[in-house]
Specification:
Strand order of the largest sheet: 1-2-3-4-5
CATH topology: Metallo-beta-lactamase, Chain A
Strand content: 15-25%
Low-confidence stretches: none
CATH superfamily: Ribonuclease Z/Hydroxyacylglutathione hydrolase-like
Largest sheet: 5 strands, mixed
Number of domains: 1
Number of strands: 5
Distance between the termini: 23 Å
Length: 119
């Protein structure tokens, strides 16, 4: 992943379905390219730490904003899979949610603490 300190992302695949998990990241290519090759990809879990108005801070710290998230998600080439968003800075949560809503993407789910999901 592309981050100020080394981080990793994962593609978890049980042979039937797979999920891509970004880990902390800014713009990157390799993981999205690998995810795009999987016919069994069922979901993406991608961090989005800052609102769009703080894009310069996101770039500096190696994180995504909702607008950058949309660009990165497009690289997977599977626009209809569920996109789960996590790692939002608490002090910016409401603004990030507003920015995500403005993306007009029907498949975004904002993960909350304690939320469980099945893919």
């Amino acid at each position: 992943m592309n981050h100020v300190i080394p981080t990793v992302g994962y593609i978890i695949d049980d042979g039937i379905s797979s999920v891509v998990y970004s880990g902390d990241t800014y713009k990157t290519e390799k993981i999205w390219k690998e995810a795009s090759k999987r016919d069994n990809l069922k979901a993406a879990i991608i961090e989005t730490s800052f609102p769009d108005r703080l894009s310069s801070l996101a770039v500096l710290s190696g994180h995504l904003t909702p607008a950058i998230l949309k660009e990165e998600f497009r690289k997977i080439g599977k626009p209809d899979i569920p996109l789960f968003v996590y790692h939002m800075k608490p002090q910016h949560l409401e603004e990030i949610k507003k920015d995500i809503g403005a993306l007009k993407m029907h498949n975004i789910v904002i993960l909350d603490d304690g939320k469980e999901m099945e893919v």
